[in-house]
Amino acid sequence: MGIFSSIWNKITNHKPAAAPAPAPTAAPAGAAPTAAPASLPPVDVEAVLSGLAASKGGGGNWRTSIVDLLKLLDLDSSLSARKELAEELNVHAGEHGSAEQNIALSKAVWRKLAENGGQVPASLRD
Questions:
Q1: What is the Cα–Cα distance from 95 to 16, expressed in whole angstroms?
Q2: pTM value?
Q3: What DSSP assignment string belongs to the chain?
Q4: Of 12-16, 36-40, 59-63, which gets the smallest average pLDDT?
C-alpha cells in the first residue's frame, strides 16, 4: 500500500459513522427489484481533519504543511517518506525536502484526495 493510500485510509477511518440503514422489507412476489442505493456522499476531508486536530490539541499547520498533515494522521513524515510520496504523486518541484517541494506535495495530496471522492475546499487544492 502506498503512502497516499495510507493517508486516504486514515481520513476515511476517522469519518463519522453513517446512520444505520432501515431494515429491508420483503417485496411482494412478482415485484420488480428496487434500484441500487445511491453512492455514498463524499468525505468532508477538512471537517474530518479539523476534528482530528481538535482531538489532538491543534495538529499544527496541516492545511499547508505536508509534514504536519502526515503527523496529524500518525504517518511517517520523514524525508524518505516524503520522497516516496512525491514519486507516487509524480511531484518533481524543487529538491527533496525543500519548501518548494513540500508545498507542491501538499497541494498534490489535496488534489488527489478530491479526485478520490474527498470534499476538499478549492483553497487547499490550488
A1: 38
A2: 0.77
A3: --HHHHHHHHHHHTSPPPPPPPPP-PPPTTPPPPPPPPPPPPEEHHHHHHHHHHHTT---STTT-HHHHHHHTT---SHHHHHHHHHHTT---SSTTSHHHHHHHHHHHHHHHHHTTEE--HHHH-
A4: 36-40
